[in-house]
Amino acid sequence: MIRKHTRRAAKAAFAISLAVAIVIGLFAAAFARPAQSAGTTIILGTKNFPEEFILGQLYKQALEAKGFSVSYKENIGSTELIQTSLTSGKINMYPEYTGVIVQDVFHHTLSAKTAAGTYKLAKQLEATKGFTLLNATPFFDTDVVAVTNATAKKYGLKSIGDLQKAGGFKFGGFPECKTRNTCFVGYTKQYRITKATFVPLAGISAYAALDAGKVLAADVFSTDPPLGKGSKYTVLADPKHVTGFQNVAPIVKTSVATALGSKFTQTVNAVSALLTQDAIVAMNKAVIVDKQSAAKVAGAFLKANGLA
Amino acid sequence: MSGPVIPKFGEGSSCVRGDHTFCPGWVRDHWNDTLGPALVQHIELTAIAVGIGFVLAFVLALVAHRLRVLEQPFGIFSALLYTIPSLALFQLLVPFTGLTVTTVEIALVSYTLVILFPNIVAGLRSAPPDVLEAARGMGLTQRQLLTRVELPMAVPAIIGGLRIAVVSTISIATIAAFLLPQGLGYPIFVALKEPTPFKTEIYSAGALAVGLAITCDLALVALRRVLVPWNRV
Amino acid sequence: MTLADAANLHTFVDAGRFVGDHPGFLATKALEQLELSGAALALALVVALPVGVVLGHLHRGSSVAIGTSIVGRALPSLVLIAAFLTILGIGFVNNMVALAVLATGPILTNSFEGVAGVDRDAVEAARGMGMTGRQILRRVELPLSIPLVFTGIRVAAVTVVATAPIAAIAGGGGLGDIIVNQASYRLAGVLGASLCVMALSAAVFVCLLGLQIAVTPRGLRRTTLGDDPARKELT
Q1: 3-class secondary structure for B122-185?
Q2: A11, A96, B182, C45: least surrounded by Cβ within 10 Å?
Q3: Shortest Cα distance from B98 to chain A (angstroms)?
Q4: Does domain B26-227 have CATH number 3.30.565.10?
Q5: Of C90, C168, C180, the CB nearest to A212
Q6: Between the CA of residue C177 and those of B121, B139, B210, C164, C171, what are the distances in Å?
Q7: What's the CA gap between A48 and B190, in Å, rounded?
Q8: Are C2 and A84 a contacting pair at CB < 8 A?
């Protein structure tokens, strides 16, 4: 009696091990990717916030509609991190903000005096590194400093420089903001704000931190839905243009752009041309407030405009 | 010049816009594009980690069963591993194996290994000496002893180890999403970053993770009952 | 989040330098983490220890005591932290409660097993001597259950300290603030902070072990440091 059970148990144990090994083999086979043909595959990355997800999906779907194959790497990280991906060849294209290129990637203290000037300068700078800047979008999205309406009233805050009135306070922002000329460094230096402590916000949004009173002021983005009509937050004016001009233009490795030809650049530029302020704000709202997926929103927009 | 056509993207339900506690409508709408894929990715991550970890642990345990040398260093390794915050371990591996599933799997396999190895070894050792004596007396060879006596008697301990390993891996795999947009942790991280953290997404992805863990645990208990019906531990 | 830094042996050197360059900062962060972990552990003890002890004494509700651990293990720490953030806001309390939930399993199960598993003969003898139930609990079962109970507390404590870093994404502070922030502190900083977490876990382990030895009745001390077979199943 016992012998039959132990033999059955042993066989079962062996069978399980074999099954597990087969399963692993199948998964390994499924994950094994054929080697990419070098040079002409578009590896499109995005930074780590919804607006970039939308931009990434727009370019991705538009290119795929025209027959290009796109390897898509969403949510790589902030500027510093995605730049490393780009220069090391892990990706060869991503949408970037012109002012960020000039001030944060190439570390010029202040960008040019106009949006067009900023774009031209960014294009020249990227060309020196072997990257092409395709056309810029009509819309721009700059960093802005926001406080709750109550805080603005309490200290009489109208522009960033007024924050000095608040004495010692906590300033929240995404971690990289601490060292950026278009962000905390710019705010404190250009507006002579001496008593602010920077609080890096790695997991929660700046709005949540403002609401919870964890920070007095925070760095947010001008196209964010919470800043729309009837907002709970006050945006402080930036008369010195510390945050620069920030239209979006896709950075593409020059060799890849050349190899893919004018059809590629035309497809991408056609998408960029459509991205007005209203368009991007509407898409941001759909993704952030109405919780639609970026892919669906981008698809709907492209279809409505005949690009997908 | 007129601007682009901006289609209606469809307003979120009042539930979603008001951030009520739970919006079943959102779950239904986004099962296919968010929750479903995340669940599948999570199962894949776990299955690979437990599969590879089990094979490795099994081989190592068989070796350790004959030569006692492995256990001391292993004990130290496992004690160390569990004090490293898993988030840190993932980040430390990235420079070596990149931001890929491989990196996540190396970490997950390590955690699985340190759970399964001692359990399999203990299981193999659990055969009472008199039973082994009797078996030897009946003329069984060393290998037959292993396959017909020690392994079957190790099944409860092995399954016990598998239960802990599977549930642990499912739990740790959620943190992998901090680096790689895969698995059930990814919707949670995304939802946390919204201007108001999005409750429904957090609760549904969380419920899926917990449900997955409990389901696997129950399945393994059922498996043990099939394999060793006389053992009602 | 891709990572910009290469890693090699030099990273460990850099990590050491990071620790050496920021001792005050790291000490503040470590203290923050200890505060959070300590509060969470205290909350779990207040809730789970009495329940486990009483159930063990009455030899009732074993499925609850053991089931709690099983369910507790199935709750990913990230899920707990995220869920409690939505319920209790961003800061200290939400993370304290989330980590306390993690600590409950080992404490409840081990205190139950510890008290319920006390040698029946000893309990019988005590009853024979005329002790009431409460006296048995206080004078026989509790002292004899110390090894298992403390093991549970130790496991819970180390789990909480090692898990606390992830609470940084929800405003929990501590060394996690560095670990989730490679962008600001670089890989060397993350590694340095992780080493501090490991040191903290080890310190907590040793302190609690020392406390356990101090509290264990002399007659039991030899077994405390030896192999505890029940521990393998309950950790």
Answers
A1: HHHHCCCHHHHHHHHHCCCCHHHHHHHHHHHHHHHHHHHHHHHHHHHHHHHHHHHCCCCCCCCH
A2: A11
A3: 10
A4: no
A5: C90
A6: 39, 63, 26, 10, 9
A7: 10
A8: yes
Any idea where the domains of chain B sit in the sequence?
26-227
Task: Tell which of A192, A217, A236 closes a domain.
Answer: A236
Q: Do B30 and A291 touch (CB under 8 A)?
A: yes
Check if B159 contacts A (Cβ < 8 Å): no
Give the mutation candidate from A76, A291, A303 for the B interface (greatest B CB count, under 10 A): A291
Contact B55 A12 (CB under 8 A): no
Neighbours of chain A (3+ CB pairs under 8 A): B, C
Q: Which of residues 18-57 of C touch B (CB under 8 A)?
A: none
Kindly state whether residue A177 falls inside one of the protein's structural domains.
yes
A225 and A79 co-located in one domain = no
| Rounded distance between C-alpha atoms, residue B54 and residue B116, angstroms | 7
Answer whether A250's CB lies under 8 Å from A47's CB: no
Residue of B7, B148, B229 with shortest CB distance to A10: B148
pTM here? 0.83
User: Are C74 and B210 an interchain contact pair (Cβ–Cβ within 8 Å)?
Assistant: yes
Q: What is the ipTM of this complex?
A: 0.86
Nearest-Cα distance to chain C for B202, in Å, is 7
Q: Is residue C13 part of a domain?
A: no
In the structure encoding, which two tokens stand for residue A289, read together? 């407030």
Cα separation, A101 vs A185, whole angstroms:
16
Contacts of A75 in chain B (CB under 8 A): 181
CA-CA distance, B62 to C68, in Å (whole number)? 33
Q: CATH number of the domain that C176 lies in?
A: 1.10.3720.10
- For A257, counting Cβ atoms within 10 Å of its Cβ (0-12 exposed, 13-18 middle, 19+ buried), the class is buried
Domain housing A72: 42-140+246-304
The answer to whether position A20 is within a domain reads: no
Do A260 and A124 sit in the same domain of this protein? yes
In angstroms, the CA B31 to CA C3 distance is 31
Q: Which residue of C has its CA nearest to A91?
A: C2
Angle at CA A138, nearest 5°, toward A178 and A174? 15
Q: Does residue C15 fall inside a structural domain?
A: no
Last residue of a domain, one of A181, A203, A236: A236
Domain membership flag for residue C73: yes
- DSSP sequence for B88-124: HHHHHHHHHH-SSHHHHHHHHHHHHHHHHHHHHHHHH
